[in-house]
Request: fold
Amino acid sequence: MTKKRKRPVSPAETNPTLDEIIASIIKTCGSPERVMELYYLAHSPGALELVRAIAAMPQESRSILEQYLTVHRDPASLRVRIEDEGEISIFCPSAADMVKALAKEDNKRLH
Reply:
């Protein structure tokens, strides 16, 4: 006897109410505060396009960018420019300080 596999049920088939959708989003996000943060982010001009572009990046590039940006705690200090050959430079003072500190430690180990 073969067991019948249940197929996934699409949202259109269940016809969730708006309240059920909102409850599901809050449950998935973890807190109402997080939902509000995402709501405001979604309404910031250009934010969704930026998020989509980052999400579409190759995993390695996205990971490097995430690591670099999580080092700093002052978004206003970031400086970005496009170089002549199409490269983008991002400068973050706290990341630069971290790189200098790591270089000093490497120098000490080598000498």
